[in-house]
Amino acid sequence: MEKKKVVLAYSGGLDTSVAVQWLTDQGYAVIACCLDVGEGKDLNFIQAKALQVGAVNSYVIDAKEEFANEYVRLALQGHTMYEEKYPLISALSRPLISKKLVEVAHKENATAVAHGCTGKGNDQVRFEVAIKALDPSLEVIAPVREWSWSREEEINYAKEKNIPIPINLDSPYSIDQNLWGRSNECGILEDPWAAPPEGAYGLTVAIEDAPDTPELLEIEFEKGIPTSINGTTYPLSELILQLNDRAGKHGVGRIDHVENRLVGIKSREVYECPGAMTLLTAHKELEDITLVKELAHFKPIISQKLSELIYNGLWFSPLKNALEAFIEETQQFVNGTVRVKLFKGHAIVEGRKSANSLYDEKLATYTADDEFDQSAAVGFIKLWGLPTEVHSMVNEKKTVKN
Amino acid sequence: MEKKKVVLAYSGGLDTSVAVQWLTDQGYAVIACCLDVGEGKDLNFIQAKALQVGAVNSYVIDAKEEFANEYVRLALQGHTMYEEKYPLISALSRPLISKKLVEVAHKENATAVAHGCTGKGNDQVRFEVAIKALDPSLEVIAPVREWSWSREEEINYAKEKNIPIPINLDSPYSIDQNLWGRSNECGILEDPWAAPPEGAYGLTVAIEDAPDTPELLEIEFEKGIPTSINGTTYPLSELILQLNDRAGKHGVGRIDHVENRLVGIKSREVYECPGAMTLLTAHKELEDITLVKELAHFKPIISQKLSELIYNGLWFSPLKNALEAFIEETQQFVNGTVRVKLFKGHAIVEGRKSANSLYDEKLATYTADDEFDQSAAVGFIKLWGLPTEVHSMVNEKKTVKN
Amino acid sequence: MEKKKVVLAYSGGLDTSVAVQWLTDQGYAVIACCLDVGEGKDLNFIQAKALQVGAVNSYVIDAKEEFANEYVRLALQGHTMYEEKYPLISALSRPLISKKLVEVAHKENATAVAHGCTGKGNDQVRFEVAIKALDPSLEVIAPVREWSWSREEEINYAKEKNIPIPINLDSPYSIDQNLWGRSNECGILEDPWAAPPEGAYGLTVAIEDAPDTPELLEIEFEKGIPTSINGTTYPLSELILQLNDRAGKHGVGRIDHVENRLVGIKSREVYECPGAMTLLTAHKELEDITLVKELAHFKPIISQKLSELIYNGLWFSPLKNALEAFIEETQQFVNGTVRVKLFKGHAIVEGRKSANSLYDEKLATYTADDEFDQSAAVGFIKLWGLPTEVHSMVNEKKTVKN
Amino acid sequence: MEKKKVVLAYSGGLDTSVAVQWLTDQGYAVIACCLDVGEGKDLNFIQAKALQVGAVNSYVIDAKEEFANEYVRLALQGHTMYEEKYPLISALSRPLISKKLVEVAHKENATAVAHGCTGKGNDQVRFEVAIKALDPSLEVIAPVREWSWSREEEINYAKEKNIPIPINLDSPYSIDQNLWGRSNECGILEDPWAAPPEGAYGLTVAIEDAPDTPELLEIEFEKGIPTSINGTTYPLSELILQLNDRAGKHGVGRIDHVENRLVGIKSREVYECPGAMTLLTAHKELEDITLVKELAHFKPIISQKLSELIYNGLWFSPLKNALEAFIEETQQFVNGTVRVKLFKGHAIVEGRKSANSLYDEKLATYTADDEFDQSAAVGFIKLWGLPTEVHSMVNEKKTVKN
User: What's the mean pLDDT in D40-54?
Assistant: First the structure.
């Protein structure tokens, strides 16, 4: 009788290497699956290592451009910022990884999918809800959560099974990275009164070490998608990597956040998003000149819901599709160029222009060119203030607190 | 027969000086009223000048502490940011000025109130709606909007009436300032592709000129109100002025915004809010550790509505009172200390602590001290993902777009 | 030299007949344009009358099916209810009428468009904003608002110009009607303490006169659009007219509403919407079984914004398009049949079924067939309540008011 | 050594009677606690029965007026309607019962609290989250969820332990009732295509059996609280019971709802809320004339959040307190009288009046008394439509879909 097959999200690290063995012990044939979503992995090395530690098959997938176009694009256009601070790094890659795991499972006739998350983070929720949404018939296994070993017990098991122990095992940090940024939790970061040490950062220099000369970028957008920097066109994934590099050198995009996890606790995380913060800032400023007021004032409601929903693992859900349809409809006008100055940790928008710009100098000006009909304001104010005025007449000054 | 009296919001500048005469020409006895809301006016000079240009009486009022406690406090606790960028500088002072104008009108038995706004800005709306809310029986006059003179015509009238012409008349900028910041519009700023020139700024240094040594501040909050800096207690208005000074020296708080005015046009404004941005950042981070998730996720909805409402001139309205009641209820837990690093245009929160902190290291940690029950996650995820799972079972993969 | 042309929204009533003459007096060649959007007009009579009172050309357009498919459909799927009571009758037809006026203006090379609204209602806003959105170069004229005659003056003018005076001129009501319902304002209705008299109603019987036998309808929906009643398929406009008739006979859909107009006043209106209320109720119940919880809980936010926006005359705006894209994405699952009982003023949904139903008896049941994993609840509750629990531990009982 | 004490929410039914024994078997001394929240219980009988089946102490508490004033009042003023249909019956009483259980636990030095809910409903969440919020140190036990017996096993255990088996054990319904209504789930109701049978109802007559003569009520409100009916003053709990009786006789308040439970499933419930629906309708109409537009348009956002939060068991939470503060601030103007006609299942508001009414006949009228300045509309419309107009000028007709 054939062994049941499980597809494991494999990173090459200790946890998932041990999981290959542990799942094999449970009677599974393990198929490893590793994605590059922009963290710059050595996919060949990881592919080989998976086989070395016992996988029966090992997939590696360069998913950078798919990640950029299908996931990051929405985050950018939707201005998704969980709790107004965190631009959803891991939360964005989890659904794509889940999708690839399910695709491999279907190809391999696997009956189960496994991930390396513990039982107290958000990622376990994101993986499991995404996988169930994509194929409710698949079993989902979370070896690390199930075995609930201490670090020592895990190392003992690894030694016993001849699983190589990584050299940097004593790193106090737990890192996840993709195109859209790098997240870091644990260890010394757990005290929210302590400043994060420099060692916590990997994509950005400290502001103290940033160059004294600013760098100017002209970023061009078409339908809300950044397409070129200073006239050079890039595929979206490359453009973001470019910006991670350039803005990172200027110390742009460090975020230190005490956030509310879905599983009910507050945790402190340190993020670096040089490209993401540069693009989010530029995109917002382009919308400021191209979106009509009523739309500009409602879109943040959509953004907040979309942010929570993605953070909470509901990427593959009808609500996400409906929110995306809203966002997509709005982006047709978001064309133009934004000039960004990278300097000392800032991505400052110094100028923005667009063929779709609704900023009209002839209406806005206080010079003699003024085309605004100032007399219209009198009637406007009369009707605008009428409800409050009637309220005051009826209720006298009861409503005025001060 | 006695002349009708009008109370004029008097700034000492050309427009309102001319307005004193113009209103007198219309048959009014003009009572000038000037407030200091933190812009550092020479009140004695202005009081005298009003009389010199024809006012029959001249009031000057130091309203800094009232402005701080009754207006700025709510803006801080409510995180009011119009269009996620503008922390409501003039929009906050207009209701207080209106209130004082109405009080003086009542004291002087005046039948009218006048302001110096043109017909295309937001401030005319704020003044008129506030005054009508406070006393619907008062007539409101807007001389500048009514006379609709060109600059040249106004100067000719001033010369004819012996009204002193200010030296800085050729300034290309139109400035309004108070405790909470400084706003600047017009002239060269009207091209949104051009970077604002250094001359546009008055409260902050350029990042290029900011010191190479950071300054660390420990700001203490009680019930959401900042009370001390590095152990020294200040009244709120002084604390903010202190921060304007200290954070301004580090280039903190420059904002360049193309915004949607209530009167239907987009305009480009440059703001400087060193104290405001420092305090808003610190307050948000203190809330991040003291507010429960459900509350933290809903408060931004309140903030957005409050921001729009204040921007739109509806300070004296029942909705503002209800939103304020919401905010006030939330602030009892916002106690603690935030450590802010002022450096190169940034106000970076490096640490936060509170006796009301809901961040629990024993729950958040990945060390052996962990008290979080990881097994609870299994049941949680099952029910959390159940609606999406049922949806997928019923509708197969129809919902999954990618 | 050729006369300037104006396209007038012509109803055949006194106001717009007088407007034909008045506009002619102003030097315009008047092109009348009358739409049937479901009120059952005698289009031939109106076409002739327009020419009789002086129009140089007279268009009549049967727009019922376009109105149903492009305007009413969105109102139904979007559950638009202004202030949770008014299902947007006139507010829906105004943009379509505006669109047709603009089309005729383009065809006729007219430079102006005119409507018959007064200066205190919502419809003037809806017409003018829609027309400006469709073609900002067109002049918009509002004769009734401009001439501001008393009723007597208007009649004198009409007599003088040989314009026929309608017989029912003394009707105390002002009626507007289309497929989606009938609205009535003015006269005795203006006292909100008085019950509306029976004479105010035209589409529905009083509950007192409704039959003692209920009528059962099975309404089938495809992608959120009602397609058949009791197995008989109808085009949407006919289906609604059918329901107006059938549900009207049972007294369904009377609404008595004191509402907030856009122009700042409260007004009291009486509406009748037998078909609309039947369909809105049925559609909501079908969504209750076919939409996933997260989506069902957010859609009302979209509905509220869409209702306000349409009420406020912003149909032709990018925000409406984005909200519509959201709604459209959600309707693919809204397939199935709803059984409605019409009886004594009620449209009661007694049953609903769908191939996309997410109601799962095996999960919901308390019988032995139960497939719900009750043990999952323990973990779920632990994490669901964790933030509140930590809050209580930290802040003791400060938060518990009672 | 003394036995550990547990306080059990005791209803007198089979489940909680068995729970007394089961908890005793687990080594607890069981203190029974039964509340009357308006369901008309025989408290003496229940008190005695608890002791008979093995409780060491038995509390009975008449909590009707506290329930009305502290819980129902907020639901009424906040217009809480979960999914726009369910006015939160059980969801309102659970926090009060939890509070009383905790109070008794403190008085009796009990270390645990127990409830009789199963593992698939909402009430388990409401009890457990409320108890943890009130005293995180208390253990919470859910005997029915823990023992997970079939009905047969439970009856066998009861017989063995001499616990009386209720006569109506074979009722296919599961009922919960309080002042605010009666809820019913299970059995035949589980098929959402089938109409609920008459036997499912207990508080209301069928419309078919409702009297042919309407009943008129004048309900007076003070600060949003109903205080009298037709001139007779009642304490709130009695006023609601009165209305349950009077409106129930007219068949008012039947609700048939397929709802989304917090635990992830859809369930079909039948509710009867004659008093609640009458009061909610009347209160909304009084707000329609007394609340200013901006407030009236935002309050539903508060209502929706408050409804979800209470439904989801978060009554004792800081967000609820903040939402309540908002609501309370708004109610000072909600004074006046509403005339309601009870007839054939309807509670129709025929008239409303208030000293705080913002409806102004002189502004609303179309008669010669009109005081509305129609000329103001011209300027208003110009600025109101300006953003859309500029958008169209810039983007031509790209935005107009139709």
Answer: 95
**How much of chain C, in percent, has pLDDT values that exceed 90?**
85
Q: Where are the domains of chain B?
A: 4-170, 175-291+334-353, 362-395
**Inter-chain contact C207–D346, Cβ cutoff 8 Å?**
yes
Write the pLDDT tens digit of every residue in C288-323.
999 999 999 999 999 999 999 999 999 999 999 999
pLDDT, mean of residues D39-58: 95
* Segment 71-130 of chain C within 8 Å of chain D by CB: 83-84, 99, 118-120, 124-125, 128-129
CA dist., res. B287 & res. B295, Å (int): 10
- The fraction of chain D above a pLDDT of 70, given in percent, is 98
Quote the pLDDT of residue B243.
98
> What residue type is D378 in one-letter code?
V
Whose CA is closest to B387, among C290, C255, A183, D7?
A: C290
Pick the residue from chain C with its C-alpha nearest to D337: C193
Question: Tokens for D144?
Answer: 């029915």
Amino acid letter, residue A93? S
Q: Which amino acid is at B59?
A: Y
Low-confidence ranges of chain C (pLDDT < 70): 1, 366-367, 397-402
Contacts of D304 in chain C (CB under 8 A): 300-301
As a whole number, the mean pLDDT across chain A is: 94
Nearest Cα neighbor of A343 from A294, A393, A274 is A274
Res A1: pLDDT: 66
**Mean pLDDT rounded to a whole number for chain B:** 94
Cβ A318–C305 below 8 Å, yes or no? no
Same fold across A4-170 and A175-291+334-353 = no
Q: Does B63 appear as a known binding residue? A: no
Q: Which residues 130-189 on chain B approach chain A with CB closer than 8 angstroms?
A: 132-136, 145, 148, 150, 174, 185-186
Q: Please give the sequence-ordered ranges of beta strands (E in DSSP) within A76-198, or none if there are none.
A: 112-114, 139-141, 174-178, 181-185
Contact B200, B177 (CB under 8 A): no
On whether any CB of chain B is under 8 Å from the CB of D29, the answer is no
- State the DSSP H helix or E strand holding residue B82, giving kind and residue range, or none if neither: none
Q: What is the DSSP string of D182-217?
A: EEEESGGGG-TTSPPPGGG-SS---GGGS-SS-EEE
Closest CA to D131 of D115, D119, D116: D115
Q: Which two tokens stand for residue B10?
A: 């008097």
Which residues are bridge partners to A86 per DSSP?
Answer: A82
Strands D4-9 and D28-36 come out as parallel
**Chains in contact with A via at least 3 Cβ–Cβ pairs below 8 Å:** B, C, D
What class, spelled out in words, does domain A4-170 have in CATH? alpha beta
| Partner-chain contact A322 C295, CB within 8 Å | yes
pLDDT tens digit sequence for D239-252? 999 999 999 999 99
Spatial distance between the Cα atoms of B395 and A136, rounded to a whole number of angstroms: 11
What's the number of CA atoms in the CB half-sphere (13 Å) around residue D46?
21
pLDDT tier at A174 (50, 70, 90 boundaries)?
confident
Helix (H) or strand (E) holding C289: helix C274-290
**B251 assigned ligand-binding residue:** no
ipTM: 0.95
**Sign of torsion over alpha carbons A305, A308, A311, A316:** negative
Min Cα distance B52 → chain D (Å) is: 37
**pLDDT of B62-119, one tens digit each?**
999 999 999 999 999 999 999 999 999 999 999 999 999 999 999 999 999 999 999 9
Burial label for B353, CB within 10 Å (0-12, 13-18, 19+), is middle
β-pairing, A346-353 vs A336-343, is antiparallel
Residues of chain B with pLDDT under 50: 397-402
> Is domain A175-291+334-353 given the CATH code 3.90.1260.10 in the classification?
yes
pTM above 0.80, yes or no: yes
